[in-house]
Amino acid sequence: MARYIGPKSKIARKFGEPIFGADKVLSKKSYPPGQHGNSRRRKQSEYALQLREKQMAKYTYGVLERQFRNLFEKAQRSSGITGEVLLQLLESRLDNVVFRLGIAPTRAAARQLVSHRHIVVDGEVVNIPSYTLKPGQIIGVRERDKSMEVIADSLAGYNHSKYPWLEWDGRTYSGKLLNVPTREEIPEPIKEQLIVELYSK
């Protein structure tokens, strides 16, 4: 399974967002990395701004270039606003929903739980992080893995009412995808229209 394994704090500082989860470095160094990170930068070109949004979306959801391009092409073929559909497809990935349900503290941890066969969808083990969920499907922790410390720690005190498109059942350690989230419900500060403009060139 391909995934980003490079420096994470440097990337978070580049975008000024904790895209890999809480990062103490951001509070200490709120400027971009590099020799000239703390100096005034010249105005960025339109292309640079578009590329920045694409890179930010890729790193946020843990998707590499080819996967991201395929998702964009799928969004283009769908009815609806391309940029919004793209974010909805990213949000509907199994690893993202496991993260949103609080089963894992980060998307990277969620991806690992899925890959290691700890997650079930409608009662069946699914070990593909990019699996696209449909409304009505039940996502849960495999019965024998419910006592795992990493899962218990992540769920402790987690606010399950944050995302109205998801429903959580603490008794069964499972959640339900009620519907595909609208753009207003997706909290990520991504300007998806810039991504659409980049790929439309």
Automatic annotation (TrEMBL):
Quaternary structure annotation from Swiss-Prot or TrEMBL: Part of the 30S ribosomal subunit. Contacts protein S5. The interaction surface between S4 and S5 is involved in control of translational fidelity.
Family: Belongs to the universal ribosomal protein uS4 family.
The UniProt record lists the keyword Hydrolase: no
Protein name per Swiss-Prot or TrEMBL: Small ribosomal subunit protein uS4
Database matches in CDD domains: S4 (cd00165)
Segments traversing the membrane: none
Gene: rpsD
RNA-binding S4 domain sequence ranges: 92-156
One Gene Ontology cellular component annotation held by this UniProt entry: small ribosomal subunit
The organism of origin for this protein: Porphyromonas asaccharolytica (strain ATCC 25260 / DSM 20707 / BCRC 10618 / CCUG 7834 / JCM 6326 / LMG 13178 / VPI 4198 / B440) (Bacteroides asaccharolyticus)
Gene Ontology BP, a term: ribosomal small subunit biogenesis
Ranges where the Small ribosomal subunit protein uS4 N-terminal domain occurs: 3-91
Stretch list, region Disordered: 26-45
Keywords (A to Z) from UniProt: Ribonucleoprotein, Ribosomal protein, RNA-binding, rRNA-binding
GO molecular function: rRNA binding; structural constituent of ribosome
Functional summary from the UniProt entry: With S5 and S12 plays an important role in translational accuracy. One of the primary rRNA binding proteins, it binds directly to 16S rRNA where it nucleates assembly of the body of the 30S subunit.
Gene3D superfamilies from the UniProt entry: Ribosomal Protein S4 Delta 41, Chain A, domain 1, RNA-binding S4 domain
